[in-house]
Write a structure and sequence with these properties.
- 32% of the residues lie in helices and 22% in strands.
- It starts with 7 loop residues before the first strand and ends with a helix.
- It has a 15-stranded antiparallel β-sheet that branches.
- The longest helix is centred in the last third of the chain and has 20 residues.
- It is α+β, with helices and mostly antiparallel strands.
- A hairpin with a 6-residue loop joins strand 6 and strand 7.
- It contains 14 helices and 28 strands.
Length: 594
Amino acid sequence: MTLRIEDYALIGDLHTAALVGNDGSIDWLCLPHFDSAACFAALLGDEDNGHWTIAPKGAGPCTRRGYIEESLVLESVWETRTGTVKVIDFMPQRDRAPDVIRIVEGVSGSVEMSATLRLRFDYGSVVPWMRRAEGHRVAVAGPDSVWLRSEPSVKTWGHEFSTRSSFTVGEGEKVAFVLTWHPSHEQRPPLVDPHEALRSSLDDWAEWSARCRCEAPYREAVIRSLITLKALTYGPTGGIVAAPTTSLPEEFGGVRNWDYRYCWLRDATLTLGALVTAGYHEEASAWRDWLLRAVAGDPADLQIMYGLSGERRLPETELPWLSGYAGSAPVRTGNEAVKQLQLDVYGEVLDSLYVAREAGLPSETHAWSLQLTLLGFLESKWREPDEGLWEVRGPRRHFVHSKVMAWVAADRAVRTLERHPSLPGEADRWRVMRDEVHREVCEKGYDPVRNTFTQSYGSVELDAAALLIPRVGFLPPDDPRVIGTVDAVRQELGTAGLVRRYSTNGRTVDGLPGSEGAFLACSFWLVDALRLTGRVKEARELFERLLALRNDVGLLAEEYDPVAGRQVGNFPQAFSHIGLVVSALALAGEETAG
């Protein structure tokens, strides 16, 4: 049976990440980077597409699991008829080559273990050539080479294009497995000591987690989300991927399956704010610097997303040999939405750089001139229709959120010049733009009969992005239009108390068949909107309900299906965890103040 999305946990090394099921199987791993081809792709197909399972012989899901303290080191425990055993899974922060380390430790009694390594390069399509060398099992195919060893050595044998092993562990006994990838044309990298790597990894995460400023009542949830965001960071550049997976469906059996292994500008402001507030200025600076490099160039060429190092070409293709998670096809790599016009990203970039400046992050000399150039381009383009925040594949529209973010862009420029008058710029010019955008949105994007802002000019549909209007400062929280919008979104986009992004009835908005679950980031936006409009008790109740949707190790996917009672979409999702951190810190501030 296919594991539920929430049955997986995350391990990673700040270059890539793996998903480990509660049955002891690693079913997703891209090497050497987040956006590389997967060598374990059973998540999107079946076991023939690659996995690595270590578990008690004949056992099902583990009895319990969790991360060791405030780290990304996973510990899964099985209590069997003959004894208790645990498997510790982690990826040490790499010096050169990526390693996946799995340490089996006997806790009590005696347990017979079974292990199966089925490597399939290029997203489960290529069977490697296996051989023995220097006490390792070595798999090679094209550019990829993987070495597997155990300490102490256990007997392995080949079976149906996989490597099998069987061994027994008693109380206090340990068997460590190390899987190392490197380019096939290079020599094998130096061996890593698995037990020393474990100690170092725990020390590294303890030091990092200690920097978190958040205390009770929500520290556990906040630190787990921050660790997840750190794990989704590509260390060499500071870019943060939206998720480590592709094509986990927004609807089981549907076609809304997208590749999220890239860096979205839409995440920038919220990520920067969350990192700064929680005390992670170094990570915020790295993300800001990635942002500056990615958007450099002609402002007309600004994209909504980029690769890990700022790559612009992310061609979308389908992988027909993969059946898709729970039969949800097609499986896609790349993302065609990179070509869309989304005018809101200009506002998000300028807001991000404004947040960075106000937080006291070290300034970059060219950052302000870049902002002025982007704003000058937006000044001439904001009146045009676009595809909007949600990357809809329907016709372009005058999306209200895009216009609101154009207002944000002008507003942040005005604020910056007012606070830093020595900077070059025309504050009066941007005030004129700000006022014009504001006036048009209130005239054309607001429905006075229903007392709500709509998704686009003249539409009847609503959009959860309107919940951000008070947070970005477009209108004050006590404005009747804001309160009316919050109530309308709850009523029309609410599903079992959570929030969908927009209506998917018919195909008029996004051009796609089917529907999707409640979008978790939008549900956290509702928490923030309720808090801002004075309904703190309701905000806290919704927030705690959202916390209860996390899986057993504290992770959230992109969406939640209230009917099926399951997480859906790519996993774990940075946007969901950013929303959690922002809401938690704000609610904690309310408690401190009140």
